[in-house]
Structure formats: C-alpha cells, structure tokens
Amino acid sequence: MHRRKKMHLYLLSLFFTMQICTPQAAVGVPENATISAVFVFGDSIVDTGNNNNLITLVKSNFPPYGRDFMGGKPTGRFSNGRIPSDIFAQQLGIKELLPAFLDPNLQLQDLIGGVSFASAGAGFDPLTSELVFVMPMLKHLRLFDEYKTKLKSFIGEERADSTVANGLYIVSAGSDDIANTYFHTSTWIFQYNASSYTELLVRSASSFLQVLQIQYK
C-alpha cells in the first residue's frame, strides 16, 4: 500500500494566495515532495480547451488566440501561448502541455500526469457559470471522479491512487464572480454589498475545497 501524503494545493484567485507564474518562474513545492500529476480546476486562467466542447460564447478557439502557441494555432487557451496549467506541468517535469479533460482527441495515456477540468467563465458562485452556459465548479469535481475511474481502468487501481495522492491541485476562480456576476446582476447588487458577496464566495470556495479533499482521499 502506498502512503497517503499531504495534499499539494495552489489557489490562484483574486481572493486567495496568488502564485505568479511566468515561463521563467520556478514552481515551488514542498521539500522532498514527489509530484505525480497536475490537476486543475477553475476558470479561463487555467482552461486548456474544455470550453471548446461546450455551447457557450466563452471560447478562445479562434485567432488571434494561440498565435505564439506551437504551430500558431488557437487551442481554447485564453492566451497567445501557454497558460499557468501548462507551465506548472512543464516546470515540474511532468508534461509539456496539460490537456483538457473534455478534449475529444484525449487518449488514455494522456490521463497520466493530470489534466485540466477548468471551464472559462466559471466561478464559485453557481450563477456565474449559469449566466454564460459553462461548467459549474461542482461539475469539475464530477469530471475528476470520471477521470479517476478512467485512470484506474488504464493503469490499475494502486498506481492510479498513488497518482491522485501525490498530485498537485490548482484551483483558480473568483474573478468572474466579481466582474461578470456581481457587477452585472442587479439582484446580487441589491442583496449583497461587495464585502458580503466576497464572504459568500469564500464560503463557496471553502465548500469546494472540502469536497475536493474528500475526493482526493
């Protein structure tokens, strides 16, 4: 039996610890930690193409997105090139690019090393995802369960459990809640002031992380 290890978690968010990530930046991990995979949840900052497969206007699979990416092709990343999801995986020596879990061309071997479950436009407030027809954060967790089932069928339960137990978990969300939901939804502005709405997001984020930690175990 492999030993369970402490969950390695980064929060990339307006409201939480901000990890500044550039192509030249080193990714800091605990000393003597072995990182087997990168698992990403959240919004456009870390979506590597999941929204390509949704019926939503929140997409980036067209020029000029991707103009500095390999081959100069748009991939669904909200960037001219790579995004933090890719940079974390590359800096840790796991894989050069982190695939989107909903990519129809995803192969079983692509599951090794982790994937992104993020959906551009998503937020901790369920209404944020609903307004723009993208995947709510709880859907990201359901996809994580689906990922684990597929990984076990491919590499076996013991190795899959070890991969999940020793993964780096990145959550990036919150900015769309403020920019797209709070300031553009009159019901929310009348019901909450900025401080109380932020508290709502913190509670929602805490609930999300609690469920993620349960699934991690």
Descriptive overview:
- It is a single chain.
- The model is unreliable at 13-26 (pLDDT under 50).
- This protein has one domain.
- It is globular, with a radius of gyration of 17 Å.
- The chain has a 3-stranded parallel beta sheet, sandwiched between helices.
- It is mainly alpha-helical and 217 residues long.
- Helix 3 (137-155) packs parallel to helix 7.
- The chain is built from 7 helices and 3 strands.
Describe what is shown at a glance.
This protein has one domain.
Tag the structure with descriptive keywords:
3 strands; 37% helix; globular; 3-stranded parallel sheet; mainly alpha; 217 residues
List the helices and strands and how they pair.
Layout lengths: L7 E4 L25 E6 L41 H8 L34 H7 L4 H19 L1 H9 L1 E6 L2 H8 L3 H6 L2 H23 L1
Helix pairs in contact: 3-4, 3-7
* Tally of separate helices: 7
Major beta sheet, strand line-up = 1-3-2
Oligomer: single chain
Count the strands? 3
The average pLDDT score comes to 86
Shape: globular
Terminus-to-terminus distance: 14 Å
State the major sheet. 3 strands, parallel
